[in-house]
Design brief:
The chain is α/β, with parallel strands linked by helices and 261 residues long. 26% of the residues lie in helices and 25% in strands. One of its GO terms (cellular component) is cytoplasm.
Length: 261
């Protein structure tokens, strides 16, 4: 199997090392693992692409490239340039530092890369490591992802639903904020929503008097709906959420017919 891996934390991120370990195990001794990742951290860029400016690509080693662009850019660079003659069979994005459960999925560059791969007709999985009080003192912050990453991916590759329609399925995997020994198992879950904790801004002034705004987050331990991704994560389960790039609110189409003339 030929696997492309990327992330949004950057090519030097520790989670990418974990992703490489998992990818090599899946690819097997006759397979290939290619790394095409952002040259610098690109957290929170979602499915952004560098549409109005060029991006520099630097080869760091054999099958290893740094792209001055977003995670989705990395997928485009790989599929249409770097690997144009050796198209990947699978794209793995991550392992992200921090969770991409609930509303975080909307902002995630990690998920943006998997979404772009799906739009390119390639099977894709995004992987993220939830952090919390139970993991803050671990020597290896990616312990749980290391322990359950390969098992989870093999389950998905062997038993997951993969489609070849216009908006193909891709998967969002989040490893729970507990030590590996406390993981309860794997659960299929819908995307949750943490109420009263959205992103905001905080104003600060520089020494020169200029005013800047910092984006602020909120505690990630807020409960979400029963059976959602963040809910099962906080209960110690690895969450697996099937996703599509189709943003249509299909449940509203029929009621909305009333506005048609």
């Amino acid at each position: 199997m030929r696997i492309l891996i990327t992330n949004d934390d950057g090519i030097n991120a520790p989670g990418l090392v974990v992703m490489e370990e998992i990818a090599k195990a899946i690819a097997g001794k006759n397979g290939e693992v290619w790394v095409v990742a952002p040259a610098f951290e690109q957290s929170g860029v979602g499915h952004c692409i560098s549409y109005t400016q060029p991006m520099m690509v630097s080869q760091m080693a054999e099958r290893r490239y740094a792209v001055q662009g977003s995670p989705a850019d990395c997928v485009l660079a790989a599929v249409h340039d770097i690997m144009v003659d050796t198209r990947p069979d699978l794209v793995l994005s991550g392992v992200n530092r921090g969770n991409n459960s609930a509303e975080n999925a909307v902002y995630s560059g990690t998920i943006g890369a998997a979404m772009e791969a799906a739009l390119q007709g390639i099977d894709a999985i995004a992987l993220s490591q939830y952090y919390g009080p139970a993991t803050k003192d671990l020597t290896d912050q990616f312990e749980t992802a290391r322990a359950y990453g390969l098992k989870t991916l093999r389950q998905l590759l062997d038993h997951g639903v993969w489609t070849d329609d216009d908006y193909g399925i891709f998967y969002n995997v989040n490893f729970p904020p507990v030590p590996a020994k406390d993981v309860q198992g794997i659960r299929v879950a819908h995307q949750g929503f943490r109420r009263d904790m959205g992103f905001g801004v905080q104003a600060q002034h520089s020494p020169s008097g200029r005013r800047f705004l910092w984006i602020t987050g909120a505690p990630q331990q807020q409960p979400t709906s029963q059976g959602s991704d963040a809910d099962v994560n906080l209960k110690g389960y690895v969450s697996v959420t099937p996703m599509r790039a189709d943003l249509t609110a299909h449940d509203i189409l029929s009621p909305l017919k009333a506005i048609e003339l």
